[in-house]
Design goal:
By secondary structure, the protein is α/β, with parallel strands linked by helices. The chain has a single domain, classed as TIM Barrel, CATH 3.20.20.80. It is about 30% helix and about 15% strand. Strand 3, helix 2 and strand 4 form a beta-alpha-beta unit. Belongs to the glycosyl hydrolase 99 family. It is a single-pass type II membrane protein. Its main location: Golgi.
Length: about 240
């Protein structure tokens, strides 16, 4: 079976990240990769087809700086230029909703795979966030994950561990995301075992240093199968929402 993958950029914070440096970053990315067949573009509600950028820890930069990049009158504005795009900010605290709107972003995402870790990642808040986004013409992109456990590298963070429960946590998160009828759902999953968010094939493994979590009694591809099933469900549900 042929699987076609497209790539969107997730821009991490770095020392000296400003509206000017972000302008340079976006220009570089689009100039270098914009014509590649696997460069992801999103069709907006106005019919534009634009690159989509996730901006992690966007709250570290004040709204008045983001407006220089993300509003039409900004000194570094990319709006209406060949470097325009759909820019999605990270909502962690409730107040970030208003900062994101004031900054000129096109939407917000929640990122964290641990339900309850932040205001944005708490499933119970997604309905209210979605309503805020709908009222202000913003995308709301809830983020889900198969579970979370990072105590191997953050021993103090045990209270944010979320057990997989043989896939039920993942499915509960996906159901919560679909219930608010989003245009996009992101899956926060890395092939990094220290945060326990992987959905790739996994088999039992133990070393002198640690025991790696596996998917038993399920098959090695259990989470890939769940992802496929829910992606199909999501596509079918979206068709119904648009009818």
């Amino acid at each position: 079976m042929l699987i076609y993958v497209e790539v969107a950029f997730h821009i991490q914070p770095y020392k000296g990240r400003t509206d000017q440096s972000m302008h340079d970053n976006i220009k570089y990315i689009i100039d270098k990769y914009g014509n590649h067949g696997a460069f992801y573009r999103f069709r907006t509600s106005t019919g534009q087809v634009l690159p989509l950028f996730y901006v992690y820890d966007s709250y570290l930069t004040p709204p008045e700086s983001w407006t220089e990049l993300l509003t039409a009158k900004g000194s570094q504005s990319i709006r209406g230029t060949p470097y325009d795009g759909v820019f999605v900010a990270l909502v962690v605290e409730e107040r970030h909703k208003h900062d994101i709107l004031a900054s000129g972003f096109d939407g917000m995402y929640t990122y964290f795979a641990s339900n309850g870790f932040s205001f944005g990642s708490s499933h119970q808040n997604w309905k209210a966030i979605k309503e805020f986004c709908d009222a202000n013409n913003l995308l709301f992109i809830p983020s889900v994950g198969p579970g979370y456990v990072d105590t191997a590298v953050r021993p103090w963070n045990n209270h944010n561990t979320r057990n997989r429960v043989n896939g039920r946590y993942y499915e509960t998160s996906l159901q919560a995301a679909l219930s608010v009828r989003p245009e996009i759902v992101t899956i926060t999953s890395f092939n990094q075992w220290h945060e326990g968010t992987q959905i790739e094939r996994a088999v039992p493994k133990k070393t002198m240093a640690r025991l790696y979590l596996d998917y038993l009694p399920n098959q090695a591809d259990h989470y890939l199968q769940l992802t496929r099933q829910w992606a199909e469900t999501f596509n079918k549900e979206k068709d119904k929402w648009l009818m």
